[in-house]
Every structure is written in C-alpha cells, then in structure tokens.
Amino acid sequence: MLEAFIEQLQEVETFEGLNALVVGLRDGLNVEHIVYHSVNASGGQYAALTYDDSWVNRYIEQDYARVDPVVQACFRRFHPIDWKQLDWSGKAQRSFLGEAIDSGVGNQGFSLPIRGPSGQFALFSISDRMTDEKWARFTQENVQNLLLVSHYINQKALEIERGTDHAQLVSLSPRETDALTMLAMGYSRAKAAEALSISEHTLRVYIESARFKLAALNTTHAVARALASGLLVV
C-alpha cells in the first residue's frame, strides 16, 4: 500500500488533490481520521484532513490549539506521540477531549511532529476508536510506514505551496554550530560553555549570532530550526 500511495502522491498537483489522497489513505488504513496540518515560518497554515467540518470550525472558533495537549506536545518534541501518554488532567483539557470524542475524533490518537525547511512545522495524526490493545498493536506495526508517509505528504505540500521543497540553507560558523549542538543535547549554558572551554558571555554571543542567522524568535526556536535544516548532528 505504501508504494501505491507514494506513486499516487507524485501525481498530485493541488491541495484539493492532496486532501483527496489523505481521505483515501484513511480508508486504506481503516482508521477513523487522518490529519496533516502545516504552519510555515510566516504563520500561513494548510490542512488536509478527514474531520467533519463542524468539528474543524468549532476547533478554530474556540482556538483549541491553546489547550490541545497534542499540539503543545508536538511543538516540544521530535518523536511520535501517543495521545494517551499526554497529560489530560486539566479541566480545559478534559473538556476539550470529551468534546473531541463526541465529535467523532476517536479515543485513540497518534501524532508525528514534522519540522521542515525555513522554520516550517507540521504534524501528522491518525485517530480511531480501537481498544487500547488493538491500538498498541496497530501503531507498533505501522509506525515506520506512517513516518515515511507523513514526510512524503509534507514534501508534497511544500512543493504545491512553493513550487519546490528545497530552501536556501543558512550557514553557521563552527562555533555557532557547537553552541547550538550543546543546547540541543540538553546542556545548560554553563555546562555548554565549560565543555567548549569558553565563557558564558562568549557562548551567548555565538547563540545570538546563530539565532539572528536563523531568523529565530528565541534560542529554542533557533535550535529547532537548525535541527530541521540538518545543520546539527545530535
């Protein structure tokens, strides 16, 4: 199925065609829903999804992205996320989850964060009403294909939006790269400076220089952009 999907994806030229292919993928995987949602560096958004329009409109009207644990987790992480492993204990989160389930989203979900060129961010999610045991088996058996599919869809969305999925890469100096690499590995600024045998002030200069080159809002954003652009090896 993966090979056939990729072949069909190569022929897609419009966002409408991409959405139709996502619907077909949903049917092929026999799950309730699939969502691909992309946000570029300037805040422009695009989504290919199978949710009912009423739920999509409700989500946007209520700005549920502010309280949605899935969205928040995908912004902070790089690895696949099972929805049930997230914190739904807050009142707003519990209310949101109940409304989502009532709207047919499903009680199970699995999301893949995607970081593309020039600060682009996307997430790819599948959801269903399977039992915990069946869902665990399904995700374990399909995670590798889902990873590939999510990135192929993201690549195609970038091609449709920009005419290409390539972006001009920023060039960082060796010291700027070292500084961001240390932070990406979880080092504090003090530990990073010590490891690089430089002062914290000098480290801050390198970090700020890299942040400027990457057009990042803050240090965390700079690290994310450098990782997405393949400038860091962690």
Task: Describe what is shown at a glance.
With 234 residues, the chain is an alpha+beta fold. It has 10 helices and 5 strands.
Helix content: 55-70%
Number of DSSP helical runs: 10
Gyration radius from CA atoms, angstroms: 19 Å
Count of domain modules: 2
**How many β-strands, per DSSP?**
5
What's the CATH H-level homologous superfamily of the largest domain? Answer: Transcription factor LuxR-like, autoinducer-binding domain
CA-based shape: globular
Instruction: Give the ordered list of helices and strands.
Output: HHEEHHEHEEHHHHH
Q: Please identify the top-level CATH class of the largest domain.
A: Alpha Beta
* Mean pLDDT across residues: 89
Stated plainly, the CATH topology of the largest domain is called: Beta-Lactamase
Largest beta-sheet details: 5 strands, antiparallel
Task: Name the structural class.
Answer: alpha+beta
The proportion of residues in beta strands is 5-15%
Distance between the termini: 33 Å
Query: Strand arrangement, largest sheet?
Result: 2-1-5-4-3
| CATH architecture identity of the largest domain | 2-Layer Sandwich
Low-confidence stretches: none
InterPro entries: Sig_transdc_resp-reg_C-effctor, TF_LuxR_autoind-bd_dom, TF_LuxR_autoind-bd_dom_sf, Tscrpt_reg_LuxR_C, WH-like_DNA-bd_sf
Protein name: LuxR family transcriptional regulator
Keywords: DNA-binding, Transcription, Transcription regulation
Pfam families: Autoind_bind (PF03472), GerE (PF00196)
